[in-house]
Amino acid sequence: MRFRFLAAFAAITLVALPASLPARAADLAAPAIAATAYTLIDVTSGQTLASQAGGERRDPASLTKLMTAYLVFDALRKKTITPSQMVNVSTRAWKATGSRMFIEPRKAVSVDELLRGMIVQSGNDAAIALAELVSGTEEAFVDAMNKEAVHLGMTNTSFANADGLPDPKHWSTPDDMGKLAVALVRDFPEYYPLFAQKEFRYNNITQPNRNRLLWTDPFVDGLKTGHTEEAGWCLIASAKRGERRLLSVLLGAATDAGRASESQKLLNWGFQTFDTVQLYQAGKAVSTLRVWKGATKEVGAGFVADRYVTLPKGRAADLKLTMHATEPLIAPVASGQRVGTVEVKLDDRSVGEFPLIALNDVASGGLFGRAWDSLRLWFGSGKT
């Protein structure tokens, strides 16, 4: 499936700059999902397509390991650790309870093996060993986890450990876990394929990835399962069909099979019910705006990144786009400076609002030109 590109900017009008509104999909009833909470996200547009108790605090169980992976991937990119680096296993990591990859204190293990043990086998021992490697202690690593959660906008999350075992100070929400999973896909594409690995063998023990959808849906390529008595059966699943990626966060299913089947139901509904439409391309001018007191009279306006919107299937032709431009726009203008907003509406409801930026610099003009424009603005002839 290819994205549809809309060349509809000719119909845009210029009005004053309003406050921004959040992007959202049109309200459509999701199928009944047998889980206590869930969220479905279109990764490309960033829009939430469906949510049930998405903002309620839950035990995230081993979904926690996505944040552990995020920080380890960051350390690998910064080269503070390397994939081939050998790690001595602490007693604390060796004695970890719950799911394990079975590392041993007298047998060094590589960072790459620990990552696969944590992601594929959901090893709590591997998570602790990686946390200790990156930050010295698990406690220091947890501090880093919580700081990164704030940075990613996970406003209703508190981490107390690196592996996800139950703790009164350990919680998150489907919405927050969705933000984390989307960030993993977006920020670390070079490491994301680890989540598609179906099994991993270490210490003469082969363990399968617990994400059943890796076997039953060829489009699913991640991410992570979780389970405790408190959390129930949990799964964050991501699927890419053509150029489109959806991500489901499901918490509190009744069974292992149930978390897979209900996640599949959510993903199928999202792909079948919605289209993701490309509105604009990064760096391409969609309009020119009048600049006052500048060395030149106009500046190209566009977007810093490709812009997409998700909407019910077959409704792309009904979109209405309006540009709200900053007026008057006074030089100097810097490339990347916000100069307006494009609002996208469907049936008189806002489904997206994107900041419009200047695509080039405009320096201040000469003394005479600035004075002349000041007079025109003073007497009201600066309207466009």
Protein traits:
384 residues, alpha+beta, six-stranded mixed beta sheet, disordered N terminus
Your description of this structure?
With 384 residues, the protein is of the alpha+beta class. It is 26% helix and 27% strand. Strands 2-16-17-18-14-13 form a six-stranded mixed β-sheet, with no helix packed on it. Helix 1 packs across helix 4 and helix 3 crosses helix 4. The longest helix is centred in the C-terminal third of the chain and has 18 residues.
How many β-strand runs? 18
What portion of the residues fall into strands of 2 or more residues? Answer: 25-35%
List the uncertain runs: 1-26
Topology order in helix (H) and strand (E) letters: EEEEHEHEHHHHEEHEEEHEEEEEEEH
- Given helix and strand content, the structural type is alpha+beta
Annotation field: number of helices: 9
**Any idea what the radius of gyration is?**
25 Å
The overall pLDDT average reads: 89
Largest sheet: 6 strands, mixed
Shape summary: globular
Instruction: Record the strand order, biggest sheet.
Output: 2-16-17-18-14-13
Straight-line distance between termini: 41 Å
Helical residue percent band = 25-40%
